Amino acid sequence: MTLAEHYGIPQDEDVEDVTWLAETARRGWVAVGKDERIRRRPAEKAAVRRHGARCFYFTRGDLRAEDYVERLLVNLENITRACGEPGPFTYVVHPNRIERMAL
């Protein structure tokens, strides 16, 4: 489910990252995003830790949709395994691997 599907358009544009991170964790969802700067921002990192969020990020936000899908499919086994772990965690999705980041 996307932010637009969950919060509606245009409300999705106004939802703070800390809010949707908390909501995602509360629902037991896994967050997948392309705004990798979130993993570096203190408030967002704190929200991931506080709420036990499970997050995967792409390091580039300018790829074609097909490239994101390919990265997910290539890494599907490792992503699935990581999703079985309790949060909090943040992984970066690279073309051929996922990398757990320090919180």
Unreliable residue runs:
none
Question: How many structural domains does the protein architecture include?
Answer: 1
Approximately how much helix is present in the residues?
Answer: 40-55%
Q: Note the run of SSEs as H and E.
A: HHEHEHHEE
With helices defined by DSSP (H or I, 4 residues minimum), what is the helix count?
Answer: 5
Work out the oligomeric state of the chains in this entry. Answer: single chain
Q: Compute the separation of the termini in Å.
A: 25 Å
Strand content: 15-25%
The side-by-side strand order for the widest beta sheet comes to 1-2-3-4
Rg computed from alpha carbons, rounded to a whole number of angstroms = 13 Å
Would you count the extended β strands for me? 4
Shape assignment? globular
- Backbone structural class: alpha/beta
Give the mean pLDDT.
92
Largest sheet: 4 strands, mixed
